[in-house]
């Protein structure tokens, strides 16, 4: 928040900040809101109980779609299908890269470039996360974690760096792309460099703190 205030001081001045955005009035549907809260609480309980996150998320999402109040067509119209297709395509490309290029010999050779050090692993994770997005980047790094000698600690470093590296550029996380597209639909354009001027120092500071903490 401090970085945003320093980079965009005009937005925080005057009696009507953020006046360019006119949000639509919220519409609260009590039963659906209560159902959503209950599903989220059950999901959290299942996560802490050790259930597979993917299975829990699929079951919870399917249960939320089962409703007579809102027609399914209305929900499907809200899905950004091109963005979803692009994200699915990233996993296809990453899987092809892993199968075609990451042979055991290459994995062992790349693993000798210092990936057992937290600083190197964090830097590689951050850079890779902004080339193919942070979730596919974790899949690319999976074969190298076993070469570090401390896979549990290495996974924690990758989780930290890939999550925080999503703030570096618009391409760092699919969530960023969703926000940028929704903002454009409301007439607000968020450019690459405009985002980077805040994302770069924020990512650098948070990853350094994360490496120090770990």
Nutshell version of this structure?
The chain is mainly α and 214 residues long. It has helices at residues 2-7, 30-48, 53-65, 72-77, 81-101, 104-111, 118-132, 134-145, 151-165, 174-185, 192-213.
Describe the structure.
- The protein has 214 residues and is mostly helical.
- It has 11 helices and no strands.
- Helix 2 (30-48) runs antiparallel to helix 3, helix 8 (134-145) packs antiparallel against helix 9 and helix 9 runs antiparallel to helix 11 (192-213).
- The longest helix has 22 residues, at 192-213.
- The chain is globular.
- It starts with a helix and ends with a helix.
- The mean pLDDT is 83.
Overview features:
2 domains, 70% helix, 0% strand, 11 helices, mainly alpha, 214 residues, single chain
What's the layout of helices and strands?
Blueprint lengths: L1 H6 L22 H19 L4 H13 L6 H6 L3 H21 L2 H8 L6 H15 L1 H12 L5 H15 L8 H12 L6 H22 L1
Helix pairs in contact: 2-3, 5-8, 7-8, 7-9, 8-9, 9-11
Give, in order, the helices and strands. Answer: HHHHHHHHHHH
Overall residue-averaged pLDDT value: 83
Sheet with the most strands?
none
From the alpha-carbon coordinates, what is the Rg to the nearest angstrom? 21 Å
Q: Based on DSSP secondary structure assignment, what is the total number of beta strands? A: 0
What share of residues is helical? 55-70%
- Estimated share of beta-strand residues: under 5%
How far apart the termini lie comes to 24 Å
Classification by helices and strands? mainly alpha
Distinct helical segment count: 11
Question: What's the domain count?
Answer: 2
Which regions have little confidence, pLDDT < 50, spanning 5+ residues?
Answer: none
Shape: globular
